[in-house]
Structure formats: structure tokens, C-alpha cells
Amino acid sequence: xTSVMETPAPAxxxxxxxxIPGWARGVLWAVVAIGVLSTTSYLTDMPLLTSSDTSQTxxxxxxxxxxxxxxxxxxxxxGVMNIGLEGMMILGxxxxxxxxxxxxxxxxxxxxxxxxxxxxxxxxxxxxxFNVNHIVSGVAINLLGLGVAQYLATLVFEPxxxxxxxxxxxxxxxxxxxxxxxxxxxxxxxxxxxxxxxxAGLLRGLVTQVSPLAMLALLLVPVSYLVLWRTRFxxxxxxxxxxxxxAESLGVNVYLHKYxxxxxxxxxxxxxxxxxxxxxxxxxxxxxxxxxxxxxxxxAMIFGNYRPSGLLGGAALFGYSDGLQLSGGGTxxxxxxxxxxxxxxxxxxxxxIKRKWFAAAGAAVGAGILYWIYWTNDELPSDLIPYTxxxxxxxxxxxxxxxxxxxxxxxxxxxxxxxx
Length: 420
Description:
This protein has helices at residues 22-44, 52-77, 85-103, 105-129, 134-161, 179-190, 196-207, 212-230, 232-242, 244-249, 254-278, 293-303, 308-353, 357-376, 388-400. By secondary structure, it is mostly helical. It has one domain (42-175, 210-403): ABC transporter involved in vitamin B12 uptake, BtuC. Helix 2 packs parallel to helix 8 and helix 3 (85-103) crosses helix 11 (254-278). It is globular, with a radius of gyration of 23 Å. The model is unreliable at 1-17 (pLDDT under 50). GO terms for molecular function: transmembrane transporter activity. Pfam families: BPD_transp_2. It is a multi-pass membrane protein. It is found in: Cell membrane.
């Protein structure tokens, strides 16, 4: 028997270093994104890529996507697939316009949340109580939300505006700016220094003419993380999405937690619809103004791998691409293709270092296709430009699907007392 204890060798495959925290990875990717945009702006002579106007527009357009993504996160972490976010957002647009017209902007926000919440409760009744297929119920909610909004708009708004497809003018949220910081960043942006002016432009858009609704929406991201991952209630709710039978055996009221999750999901979606109506620079209630943002919100949630910090990055990506096509048209989007080529080149190098040959080859092929598009066109067709966020959605879903950690019981039917 030896007197010295030997330290066991690490098992094969065991990591020698600690995993990088999620927040650190997010910061790293943000730095990479800013670096790519700055380089692209310089090489393509397109300062609009990092201008404060683009950043400001991107923030406004990202908010409904962010809120829809948060709604999807709450429902799907509890095991309920919610593709009815689109219909709940539509209900939120009508409710917010109606409430803002009669009671002011905060009443409008509350009404938008309430109408979205009612849509969420209807979805919960169908899928939790009656075990309706989640996708079928979600599609029905989308159709019902559109029909109810059209009917109510005809009933209430047509006598006021003379048009059943839009509301009369409604109150908007005031906006606020960090004046000293905004002026300093604006001066730095105008100097057109490489990297520094790009960073200043992006930051200036985030501190200039910001609405209370934007501040509230951004605050809901860490709040959702703390509730879902740092509280007993959140642990129980997430256990319903992983194994409801096991959760029930430990005394968790699975039905109650699913109802709460889907109701909160609908409320977030309704709040996202309200942001389309109540933010300065946006339109009043218009028929079909949601325009697929509920589905894009789901894509942002999937891009973020069902995590609050990740879906924030996804919403920023979609909001930025939408804001860029509005601000700069086909020329700016074409420059963004060049930036995507640079980003894919970085990914190729990283994958080669990791010896993931197939992933590196796929990224190289994608970079080649995008560079061919950039090289052979002076400007993208104007008919395709409004669909830039939708193209980004397809690409992101294709990439994100390779690394998903989906809740195990998502979309599955559950009845109390079942063994499996």
C-alpha cells in the first residue's frame, strides 16, 4: 500500500478547461459582429451599415420580434408549442389601438397585453385541457386572431376613421435621449474614424429617442431569465416541459404551470403587437401590419436555443436586417452580403481549428455563394428587398437547427395520472 495517493488521470473526452459562460459568449459574438460590420462598412464604402439612424430603426423593429420570442420561450419551456403567436400579436395590435384611442398610451399597452393574454388562454384551453394538437390549435389561433381583429376594426374603427382596415390616430409613447452621451457619440460618429465611429454610431442609436416600452421590453429579458432559471416556480415550469409525469410525481401542478406559461406567452405577444402601434415612427393600427413577425419571433427563439440571452441576439439580427433594408435599400443589403462573407470566413477558420471538416466546407460554400451574389450585382432587385428578414429567418433556422437543445416534452399530449 503506497503512502502517496495518485491523482486520477482525466477521462478521455473530459474538458480540461471550464466552459465559457453564456454571457461571455454573447459579448464575444457582439464584438465579432461589430468588427465585421465595421470592416464591411470600410471596404464597401457604406457607412449606413453602422449609422445611428440604422441602429435606432433596428431597435424599434426588433422590439415586436423580441417580445414574440419571449412569449414563445415561456410557452415552449413549459412544453407547449405556440405557433399562435402571430394571431396573439394581431389581437394585441387591435387592443392597443382601441385602448390608446380611448384611454391613452398606457391603457393601450395594457389592452394589447390583455387581448394577447386572452388568445394565449384560448390556446391553453385547447392544448392543455382538451389535448388538441399544438400545431392545429396554433394555426386556428392565427386565423381566429386575424378574423376577430377584422371584425372588431369594422365594428369600432370604421365609424371613426371611415376605413375598416385602419384606426384613427392614436397616442404614441414619448421618447427620451441621453443628451450628453448622444451628442458626444454623434460627434465621434461624424469624424468617420475606423471602428471608433462605427461603434459610436451603433451605440448612439440605442440611447437616442428611446421609448419607455423599449426599456421595459429589454428589461423583460433578464427578468425572464431570473424567473425561469433562478426561482422555484421557474424550475417547476421548466420541468413541465422536460417530463410532466416526473414533475407531477413530485407534487407539481402541471396543468396550472402550463396555463400560466401560455397566458404569459400570449401577454408578451400582445405586448409585441402593441409595440407596432404605440411606438413613435410606427403606424397606427393597420390590417396585416404584423406581417409574419410572430413566426420570425419563433425563429429568434430557436436561434437563441431557447435561452433569453440568445433570443435577444436573434431579435437584434432580424431587427437590424429589417432596419437596414428600410434605410438603405438594395445597395445596403448587398453590402451586408459582403459582411456575411467575412463572418463565414471567420467561421471556416474556427471550424478548421476544431477539425470539423464538414461544417467548415458548408461555411465555405455559403461564403462562395454570397460573394458571387455580391460580385455579380450592383444592387439587389427592389422586389426582393422587403423580404430580407424572411430570407435571414430561413438561413438562421437552417444553421440553428444543428445545435438545438429542445425541451423533451414539447408538443406532447399530457393527461394527469398517466405513466408516460
